[in-house]
What does this fold into?
Amino acid sequence: MDGMEHIVVQPPESVTWQVHLDRSMWIGGVRGLMLQALHPLAMRGVWQNSNFQEDPFGRLRRTADFVGRVTFGSPEEAGEIGRRVRGIHKALRIHDPDTGRTHRVDDPELLLWVHCAEVSSYLEVARRGGLGLTERQADRYLDEQRKSASYVGLHPDDVPGSCAEMDAYFKRVRPGLRVTEEAAATVRFLLWPRLPRELRLLSPGKPAYFPFGALCYYSLPDWARGMYRALPEVPRASVTAALKAFRLGMNALPENVHDHAFMPATRAMLRASRERLGAAGYDVGKGLRGLTDPRRRPKARAA
It folds into this structure.
């Protein structure tokens, strides 16, 4: 649609919308954190520069906010959060106790690792959970995510833009990955997290979280689980069935109920996105998820 680039960063017709509106993203997000932790320097950057140990959910919700803004937000919103993230990263440093050296958080190699671990997790969990994407659509998703990578300071040409390129990237970096003390502790946190203060009332139901955390762990690539060995192995078919069941159950939740999992600022951004798309002629009666249905898009105007 003409002018769509002024309404949302990624259009409803994109593969990105299909993936990022799928509720399997919650599994993909935690899986991404577990995968990211295998890079020693990246993990130490998180450990030394955040309160991840106290609030692992906070990092997940902030990541969800960033992903939401560079997908469903306006170009202005995406540009603003990109500048904010780049400014924060520019000021932070990482001390490597193995070498005694100090590194920048915004080192392109570190940013690339975080990006690839994140978007590959979103894509692989959604597809394994039952989102029917062709190989061409999967490649298109990774190509679209090059734009998201640019907001953290990466050059799109340096980012894998297809499944083959992503596989080659992981093959290249795997020799440098290992399970540090921080990485092992991260997986333990994500399997049995400390609830943030505003969610402490949910503490009695905390044991119900463990199956979710375990599903995130079991969705990791075989080679990553082989490095962690945090839980006994289970049949692959059982994990796939559990992912499909989780996805179906979460996708059945009404959008206004599901969105309460996000930060208030994220919910406000999503409301504004629905309003802009509605004003542009889209049928938002079923929320943003409804817009992945071609029948709910504006019809092309006659010339």
About this structure: Residues 4-296 form one domain.
